[in-house]
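Loading example: each entry is read as two labelled lines plus one structure line.
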Amino acid sequence: MADHSHDNSHGHPENPIKYYIGVFGLLMIMTLLTVFVAQFDLAEKFKHTWGLEHISGVLNALVALTIAVIKATAVVLIFMHVRWSSRLTQVIVVSAVFWLLIMLSFTVSDYFTRGGWPVTGLGKY
Amino acid sequence: MEQQKEAGMIGMWIFLVTEVMFFGGLFLAYTIYRSIYPEGFLYGSHLLNVKLGGTNTVVLIVSSLTMAMAVYYSQKGARKPLMGFLTITLVLGLVFLVIKYFEYSSKIHDNLFPAASLYNPASTGPHGVPEALQQQVHVFLWIYFLMTGLHALHMIVGAGILTTLIVMARKGKFTKNYNSPVEISGLYWHFVDIVWIFLFPLLYLTGYHLSVGGH
């Protein structure tokens, strides 16, 4: 590829193993963290301070997804070499995220704005 | 040669974009059903085995590291370490599938496979799934089996690819100047790992606090 305008796109580093070990460590720590946090119902913990009793599970999901996104980003950048790839590859990766977000956000906003969602009273326990 | 390699990598990336949209549709279904049936998803999630799911998460993380190492040694043209790391990756992939098999068997044994006569949630555990939640849990289990099943299918395909790579490496097909198949397969393997990175918290950990804290 002729165009390597990006600072980090000059092929792979001489010794990428230290990056691989670093990402591996990050993934393990993040996995432990996400399992640890999942033991607690965060909305329950904060409902008196933040008034979160109506969105039980949402706070847990936010934390879990944030950790998952960090893990996935590390895998894409280092294990899949996107940090050192051509600009074209980087654009393709970003486009995947972009299209996925369009699909998720448009569909969810469609459901959300038609009324009766989230559907309530379908059986509490 | 460099341009051919770049074209091959780009082709794989385009394929992975379509895969993102493929799995994305299922994550969308998960999002919408979870917001409609929050209790059923919490309850259904806490029926899953976090120890086995967590073990599989670690297995996949290690296998991603060994795959990255395999790609590194294929770039160096080092045949022995390449074969070694490909073999470890394959074994870890098979370990994942065996654990998955035990998880599925246990769910089927507990009458929690969400298909007609195989689904009998009232007979599960000491008291069974609460009656009000049985239909919601049914939906959760459908999504669980569909998403993890599709992921497992990708793992089986990945195991086939790794086997092919090991055979090719054994024959000495890969050199410093020709290692595209290893690099491209590496992208695929890491993608399948990423899917699991999202599946594990969304399916296994959503209701984990119910199992830990009691309810």
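Residues 1-9, 121-125 of chain A have pLDDT under 50 and may be disordered.
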